[in-house]
Specification:
The complex is a heterodimer of chains A (64) and B (234).
Chain A lengths: L1 H7 L4 H27 L14 H4 L7
Chain B lengths: L1 H51 L24 E6 L8 E6 L3 H4 L3 E3 L10 E6 L20 E5 L3 E13 L21 E9 L6 E14 L18
Parallel strand pairs in B: 2-3, 4-7
Antiparallel strand pairs in B: 1-2, 1-5, 3-4, 5-6, 6-8, 7-8
The chains are: A mainly alpha (64), B alpha+beta (234).
Amino acid sequence: MYGPLWRMLPGPWQVKALLLLVLVVGVVAVCFLWLFPAIAPHIPFNGNSIQTGLQLHGYSTAAA
Amino acid sequence: MRGLRWGVRALGEVVITLGMLLLLFVAWQLWWTDVTANRAQASTIQALEKGFGPPGRPERRAAGPPATLRKVPLGQAFAIVRIPRFGADYARPVLEGTDRDTLIKGMGHYSGTAFPGQVGNFALAGHRTTYGRPLNNIDLLQKGDVIVVETKASYVVYTVDRHVIVTPDKVAVIAPVPQRPGAKPTQAWLTMTACHPKFSAQYRYIVFAKLVKNIARASGLPSSFMAVPAGAAG
């Protein structure tokens, strides 16, 4: 997985390392700006599963 | 044999990658959501202050009691909460409603509860951790601490009366008379609810505060109310 990726990157190792860094930054950016905000409401461990507005459901104060 | 070794290595790399993604998610939740929410909430405060207009001055006394709000559309910001115990600069927007998307943008007003200064219970929810954590230090509030709710019409000053820690199903904390569902309100209360303990949604930390003064905006807010109490975390 990472071996073939390293071999696919062009140039000497310095260039490969730089390209890899750019790739990592890109992946982190996609996660932070798009992926994580999208999946956060469905992750159970921050209590959002019982998130509610009192007037909407009437059984719990807001999980905040 | 070669295939097996390749398979084990590939599996290992996949598991390591998933572990890294999980750590990255935790970093996003605990750190990045604060960064973005703080920025967004600060700009909401600026927009509200602009909409409210410049603060008044004590010598210009307004005639009659200040008007109170009647209805605000869901999701709309309509007030600023200032709590000197949390620091002189502490200011958070209040938006109508308490759903997930609203609480990311500031404190949420439980729809159907009283508005600032009204008889009844002006009830707010706010995040204890993550998303700007407006009520991170709710457990530091002490009896007598000032909470100022600023609206277009007035500065509504409450002081902390008491706190309770309850399970989430105890919705009577936001009843018109806090903790006495069905009772007819004669006083104006402010209730703030946040998760407890930190990083858990198991309980709610509830603070009740009582109305002290409803000051028309034109009269300005006496600076004594904004004095940071001794020993405040800041």
